[in-house]
Amino acid sequence: MKLFYTAALPSKTYIITKFAAYQISRRNDYKLVLDTLKKAIKGRNVKGILLHSDQGYQYTSHNYNQLLTRNKMKASISRKGNCWDNASMENFFSHLKTECFNLHSFKTSQEVRRAIKDYILFYSHERFQNKLNNLTPIEYRSQAF
């Protein structure tokens, strides 16, 4: 069983304090990325938001960039082979893998979906982070805004 996930974190900072949207799919394709972006945009003022991604074909597609332009968002694409360009997201995915996927085995896609949802809630509301003055992302965000 292979599942792909993508997350959108429209933010004007480089610190993950809130997930705008995430999607899980059996296919790593345009639909996964566009559905995630549409979900992140829905009901939000995203004008001027910088949305970072890698150089995958989904993020360089005409449809993706057209959706960003229509919503007055800006694309930021990482340099080839440079994970530091998107360090906040890479950091989150690393924690997700080591603290969730590597500690459990899953039999169904539904179990994986539930684990990801639970981990995002844990990460946002309970997992303190040194870089956020030992606060959770939600606590840090409430102080900043």
TrEMBL record:
GO terms for biological process: DNA integration. PROSITE patterns: INTEGRASE. Residues 1-145 form the Integrase catalytic domain. One of its GO terms (molecular function) is nucleic acid binding. Pfam families: rve (PF00665), rve_2 (PF13333). InterPro entries: Integrase_cat-core, RNaseH-like_sf, RNaseH_sf, Transposase_IS3/IS150/IS904. This is Integrase catalytic domain-containing protein. It comes from Cytobacillus praedii.
